[in-house]
Amino acid sequence: MGEDDLAVGVEETSVDSSLPISLSGADRKWYNWLKRLPALVDYITIIFCAIGPWLFFYVAMWALFAFLVCFQILSIMQGAYLLKGALALRKGVKEELPEILPKHYFAIVIPNYKEDLSTLRSTLDHYATFAWAKERFLVILGMEGGEAECEEKATTLESEYGDKFATVVHSVHPRGLPGETAGKHSNERFAGQFAYEHFVQDRAFDIDSIIVCSMDSDTLHTERYFMKIEAEMQKNPSHVYNTIFASPFYNYQNMYDPQVPGFNANFDQLWAMLSLGILARSNSEFKFPASSYCVPMRFLRDLDFWDGGPEGIAEDEHMALKAFFATNGKVEIHTIYEVMNVGTVFDETIWKGIKAKLVQLRRHFQGNVDVGYSFAMLRRRFFRLGFWKHVQLSQRIFELFFLLTMSPIVGFVGWMQITVRVLMVESLQPDDFPDWGYTFVLTTTLVMNLTFVFIGLLVLSAEIVKGCGPETHNSCIGNRRWWHVIKYLWMLLGTVAMVVMSIRARTSLLLDRNFSYVVAQKVVNTDKPEELKQSPQGVPDSERAADDISNDAG
Questions:
Q1: Rounded to two decimals, what is the model's pTM?
Q2: 249 - beta bridge partners?
Q3: Neighbours of 126 (CB within 10 A)
Q4: pLDDT tens by residue, 280-303
Q5: Residue range(s) of every CATH 3.90.550.10 domain in the chain
Q6: How far is CA 321 from CA 19, 201, 431, in A?
Q7: N or C: which end of the chain has fewer CB within 10 A?
Q8: Membrane-spanning regions, if any (predicted)?
């Protein structure tokens, strides 16, 4: 397969190689201690909110008020970005794209472990319908050596789909490589290195002609997503040095499936909206991709691919952080306004489905190790980042790793304790009750109620994004019923679950427990709505009960 010369410059790079781009030496020692920071902050916050108003009332009172004001400012900003992103997405999925001739290859990396063949076939069937598939899509099946029949499964798929894509190959990630922990991140590292060796070194592909796409085994991107990346790469070839292409996601695949618990579906909606609010920021700002993204092969190689150690378990956000530090803040997270179609976990019963979701959440929150990673890397590169890059990094870390957990604790526990304390002083010691006591309680309550502004923006944005999905989703009976809005009440329980599972995962990090790699049962759904069965988007016939999850070994 010949290719035009797309190289922008021989061996140029945006990566600052004068410092390590991965944890090593003293950095790893700092990381091992700093990864405990989120748990310490959680417990200090809980203790402060519980007893602070009784031991040092005025300090606790003003600290609470300052935090709530800060939280509301950030949440309303997030809500505004969220609405901006939803409107941009609605516009983006409808805009006409100019016809272009593709000059790049898309290396689709699909890491999987004990996935049903039906799930993988559904995903490959979806991408095989794309116009560029037979000429420009290089499929790499990232198999796990710990799966007994992985070679047989890969060979079967290669024979079935070899003539539908430019090529279909597979890598087998061996277990127990030094310094690695099991998970998507280590599988992708091995698959990415395999793709580089196979296509660039062995088959002499131009490194600047390959764009590597990281995804899950059931992620369904639109064809327009790849067309927009191709257009952007042709418009600005320098993207090969420092760009990660990211897109929003939404759980269109089985949102209205009766087997999917409302808690699971609406929590995923909440998470999708929070992610969209981050991605809606300017491409010049630092932000996090979610789940699936594309990286030019040159940039991926210069970054030394994915990190396979325990620090890389939050594979998507960790890759963004690694790129941020390696380029001294010059990485560009470029948002593509095409929504990826994902599914929500479920199981044989509603309770089992909710339990599977909680276990999945716990694994996701193990990504709090990136707090330790960020501070460890920042130790060496502090003076190489500009002022605004420090501001952006600090805001993203605070929002993602601290604010989501601290705000419910402070908002409910702290506010209740302060209110009770004020009322007790008023009733038991009226002479000591300050004139501004009621004013403070009322003002704090009003500040807390500003949360409803964010909730309103979130629900409005979610309704807009719902209409940006596949036609089969838009015409689904459940989507036409007005009362489905009531399901947003599940988000209250989702917030509680997020706090509980986050604290639990952080506690494991605080105690420095090891994690093992386990997979929950996969359940084949044979009762899909008729609209979904006829989906031209290739919606999988089976959904994962929970994707590859991590749990405590002890």
A1: 0.87
A2: 340
A3: 23
A4: 999 889 999 988 999 999 999 999
A5: 101-270+282-349
A6: 15, 28, 55
A7: C
A8: 37-56, 62-83, 397-418, 438-460, 488-505
